[in-house]
Amino acid sequence: MRDRFIQTLSRLAERDPRIMLITGDLGFGVLNDYRQRFPKQFINAGVAEQNMTLVATGMALEGHIVFTYSIGNFPTLRCLEMIRNDAAYHGANVKVVSIGGGFSYGALGISHHATEDLAILRSLPDITSVSPTSLWEVTQATEAITRLPGTCFLRLDKDVGPDCVDAEPFALGAPRRLRHGTDVAFFTTGGILSEVVKAADALARDGISASIYSVHSLNPVVAEPFVAASRNHRAIVTVEEHTIHGGLAGLVLETLGDTGAFPRRFLRIGLEGCFSSVVGSQSYLRTHYRMDAPAIAARTRSLLT
User: pTM here?
Assistant: First the structure.
């Protein structure tokens, strides 16, 4: 996802000199081409992510469109006060880019596991929070937040799901239905879509029909897809490489509660009330925490029994 983001940003920066990219002293293998092509639109702020966010806010208030770039929790949770008080509160055109959502940097341990960021960032007023599920959505999301005034959060994953370009158009705030089914509706965000698709295929072999929705935007979001899915399916399952508290599951439940469209059965799949203290690859951690395709399929079967 990070490669596609940089490719898209490079294309946009070529046309718009207001675009700036600030890195927290990393990503040079990925950023070298951008840095060489646009030296006046690139800054290395060093290992000083909070200062990076403040610099970005100042530049944004002077008319730039500024992207801050770092891994996991470094540009988000470490900079939370600066994002809240300086960027978002003042409507600054700062786009916070976190690469390595969820367990992407699994082998580096909990400091590099981004498993609470969606819940925290989507709770802040006036921040558009986007978590694309595929490479195509990365391109669409990058273009969309560049056009959108104000502070945005773009969460990028190491893994990717299928593009599903022909499913439904991309629009900020509107979940995309990627597959139509009748028994269960899966709502997912981020690259873990890949596991959801494999789980849905396994369920189909058992005669269970699944809809799949990409919730690429967590703030803002429109209620209609959640309401329709609740009414037209036997169950709703949310899948996120993130804590089940406050993130995608919280968003879906809040939305359904506000509209009164309560599902008959509901299951949250994600990190369940604990820190991800186990170290290993992204795929290993998904298996360990029961959010890989076999676990998703098995837990959904039990839900529908």
Answer: 0.96
